[in-house]
Design a protein that fits this description.
By secondary structure, the protein is an alpha+beta fold. It has 14 helices and 20 strands. Helix content is 29%, strand content 24%. The N and C termini lie far apart (56 Å).
Length: 548
Amino acid sequence: MKSSASIQVRAIAYVAFAAVMITGCGDTNMRESASNSNATVRLPGTANASANMAMDARLAPVALETDAHGGQLGKAGDRYAEITENPFLETLRAPLSTFSIDVDTASYANVRRFITDGQLPPKDAVRIEEMINYFDYEYPQPMGDVPFSVMTETASCPWNSQHQILKIGLQGKKVSLEQTPTANLVFLLDVSGSMNSPDKLPLLKSGLTMMVDQLKPNDRIAIVVYAGSSGLVLPSTPVSRKGDIIAALSGLEAGGSTNGGQGIELAYTVAANNFIPGGNNRVILATDGDFNVGAKSDDALVDLIEAKRKSGVFLSVLGFGRGNLNDSMMEKLSNKGNGHYAYIDSSDEARRALGTQVAGTLYTIAKDVKIQVEFNPAKVAGYRLIGYENRMLATEDFEDDKKDAGEIGAGHSVTALYEIVPAGVKVDNAGIELKYSEVREPKGAFTNEMATVKLRYKEPDQEVSKLLTIGVPDGSTDIEAASPNMKLAASVAQFGLLLRDSRYKGQAAFPSAASLARMAMGGDVQGSRGELLNLVERASKLTRNGRG
């Protein structure tokens, strides 16, 4: 005898299939695809093959070099957005540097996957800010009502002896899950044929099961799946009925093509129908990002996410797998959805992102966080922000509360590094000499400051920003005498410059990055710093052996 849950899922699957066939009957591509492939999607409770919904799907061809938007493709068809590195700027011409924070960590985990597999990553897979922000810097907790603490440090630059490094660190307030608002979560899960490998759907299911185990009994979870069409596998269900949720996850199987746009719309509809005022309303998209069917272009999907964000439903993205990983798309969606993008390459990473750090993944403590640094031209001749290329903002955006920016989750830390050219040292890419401008000494109390850091942020449920201002004292220590946090960040940055073969790498070298990683080891309770050292040493060998 079939269970009621099984009958319900089958009914939903057939309704979704019928909707696709009706709306797509005029689509020439869909009709043509019938003769090319016959894929099957199995949802929970549909073990009998004859009862599965048959879907006609034609897999999109995988480009070999660049995608339609100019992004870089990995060695087996992974897609990465092209990165044009931030240049050095002269302080006299551009004293203000403005950007949005970014707590994504996907790039580091993806780079680790490549190196572990015996390959160097494509250079555009290396986003240095995400590599730096992967690590826990153990910054002090914030005081009072401010949701994060801010600290700065300056040291000599390991890859250019004439330069310095300025580190700006933010630490989000740690919050236990018991203290977080009630959650209304919708798992939006890709069950297309491209997810049919051990490092994709099986890892997804085990990772989300870990997350469910951490949640409060009154939190709620719904499950939406998508392949050629989308369907509601599990209506919004309290975690007190954990067995039902885990059973629905366990029954998922992969097959068919990927209509991600249709799934996203359904997931947001489910989230809106179960919206909890003052709660944590969030869609969690888990996919390899291989959106190859459906009318929605990349830009249209991004526009959809931006519109839904305004409703108070946020989006987090979990990336899985290799070979057709659409990293570019997933980063865009998480950036526009007020969420976090993590790449899950192993059960250990799933345990980290969805277990020990689940509060940060789920609970936003500050949104639209922007940083603006004003450099003192009497102390700083020039500067370069390392990373954050796709998070740069115009100067006027800092004061504009309508301009979207990044979010900080509970317990998350954010670190930004500037390479500083001290006053009196030539800036490499200086522009035309100015006739009528000159550097003026700052007034009075500011003569001992090299910069001022301003931050704007909003409370998660507010639309008016708050301002923090911090002065950065002039002066620098030798990198070997700097804090373990500075050594760690400098090691990761140097590693990233080498992996990207950056034009700004100067005298960067793998032995130097490894040496800094050793000096930054500390207690290394999580083992992540030791892992970094291992990756630096392996990448050095791959470079020597020409394993690019």
